[in-house]
Predict the 3D structure of the following.
Amino acid sequence: MQQDNVHLLLIVFTLAIMIIISVMAAGFYLMKKVILPLLNVREIMLKMSAGELPEVEVGNGKSALVEMKTALHQLREGLQRTSSFAGEIGKSNFNATFQPLSEKDVLGSALLEMRDKLKHAYEQDAIRNWASEGFAQISTILHRNTEDIIQLSDEIICGLVMYIEAQQGVIYLVNDQNANDCHILPVSFFAPDKDTLSLKRIELKEGLIGQVIFSNQKIYLPSINDSHTSLETGISKIEVCDIFIIPLFAGGKVVGAIEIKSTQRILSPKEILLKKFQSLLLQIY
């Protein structure tokens, strides 16, 4: 009987030890596989909520914790790209590329919209500055020569054509001294390959110049094969060029026109300068 009791006690003691070891093993397993990883995730989330971008180690497997860490890793990488993109915008690098985290990425979409608006504002400032600088440079010609109007006009159209990197330019004025014989005269021009203009007189409504002056509307013809067209302006033909003609309007009527030919595209910055240039010419004539 006594031996049976001892044997029973040994069995109970062994089972208790096994239960304790099992609980400790389970606790150790939970600590290593669940609790510590959760605490690590918690620490990462707290740091990210404070604006930090801590390193996130992604493990193997398909558990919920691995998926959480993978999501945090992707979020960190996305925020890192967002931060770098914002830094490039701060450096005025508006051509920097950026891919939002998803179609519903509110922050990324807002940054892209901000980039586009800042880029547009920067480009508009650059255009205005370029046009203002060119206008200022050409305006200085007025202070160098104010006696000879023809020479002054030649220097002004030369300065304008060279500044916008065009090839040819002409200033036309309406001669209405005789009410019965109103016509258009080229008063100044710049063309490196010509000393004189072959066209001495243009009738009202005649050709592109006459149309612009009669209608008070600009004409812009991009990429014209000038040497194979019948378009008559006032200067020599260029194989392929843009033709831009704007009217000079003063005192309630059109008093003339400016013609520019350029082998490069006449884009909005050049057009802005040409419009500012109108007011300068109207101070002379």
